[in-house]
Amino acid sequence: MTTNTKPILVRFDPLSAFIATALERAGLPAADADKIANLMAEADLQGSDGHGVIRLPQYVRRIRAGGINTRPNIRVVKERAAMAVVDGDNGMGHLVMSHAVDLAMAKARSAGVAWVGARASNHAGPASLYVRKPIENNMIALYFAVGNANHLPPWGGMEMLLSTNPIAVGLPAGSEPAVVLDMATTVAAYGKVKAKAKRGEQMPEGWMIDRQGKPLLDPQRAGEGFLVPIGGHKGYGLALIVGLLAGTLNGAAMGREVIDFNHDHVTPTNTGQSVLVIDLAAFAEPEMFKAAVDHLVRDLRGSERLPGVERIWLPGEQSHHRRQQYAAEGIPLSAGQVSELTTLAHELGIAPLV
Predict the structure, then answer these.
(1) For residue 4, what pLDDT is reported?
(2) What domains can you pick out in the chain, each with its CATH number?
(3) What angle do CA 343, 349, 353 make, to 5 degrees?
(4) What's the pLDDT tens digit per position in 18-42?
(5) What is the dihedral of CA 8, 14, 19, 21, to 10 degrees?
(6) Are 141 and 101 in contact (CB under 8 A)?
(7) Which pTM does this prediction carry?
């Protein structure tokens, strides 16, 4: 099943411009299309290829089918000094969460810490996108979300009532790359399954199992099984807690209420997300904290390794290196993905990406 076709390299700016043009042609205002496109291209730049331009055809289908509000009134519906609930009015998730992060940062500057939840949102790309801006402003951020399709049953069950429900945590460092943990509560995010299918590759054993509990390796047959939680019952428990914090607490979809946006392009998803932002200055001198992070990072990286291990990586380091590599050499896209984007370009009447 694996294909040996060499990836096609594209630069960040042309990729972002192509996405923006497609979204604008689909019906979004130019400024919103530009903001979303930049975040989607950022996802590909850091190697989160299950959440970048690969999602564009799906977004366009949903927008054109009326499943996305192209002129949302994103607004605060509940608020106190260190918290808020944002109603995304069924707008694109990237816009809703950008609004939520900015609000959380503003509140954290005053209160020291702030929690902002969102409802009536949509898929917003990789979780780590929304902890990076606080990092750049000497803040720590934690992000939680309910996934946009259920692919995980309760531990020991077969009915898919939970999603991958991702978590991201970002902490600034000094001269070292920021420490950024971005993880699904399943062994693999479903976006990675979709990316494997686009590239014509098999999944590693341990990502999915079928309804007999046997390994499922063909991503084209993903609908016949379900994702495996990290750490067995512990991952199931974590997925549940994240969903309660990001979905139920905000009045957003959870459990049976979650809409599978891979197949339903019309029904509002009422996606829930939450972000917690901590202002470093409220706890310590930011530069001292970042220097301490640097020291710990170097201790961990320089610690004794097991035989055959070339390097100890810190969370976010590999994405950091991919950003540098892809910025210099280009972002790799599979031939199948480029073909699909070319078809989309013809449908929209815009110039193809390559």
Answers:
(1) 54
(2) 1-64+330-354 (1.10.1530.10), 69-186+229-301 (3.30.1370.60)
(3) 55
(4) 999 999 999 999 999 999 999 999 9
(5) -140
(6) yes
(7) 0.94
In sequence order, what are the residues at sequence separation of 6 or more whose Cβ sits closer than 8 angstroms to the Cβ of residue 353?
Answer: 10, 14, 15, 18, 338, 341, 342, 345
Size (the chain), residues: 354
Two structure tokens written together for 268 = 């509002």
Alpha carbon distance 41, 25 (integer Å): 18
Looking at the predicted structure, is the pLDDT value of residue 280 above 50?
yes
Q: Which two tokens stand for residue 69?
A: 């509000």
Question: Strand order in 208-210's β-sheet?
Answer: 215-216, 208-210, 225-227
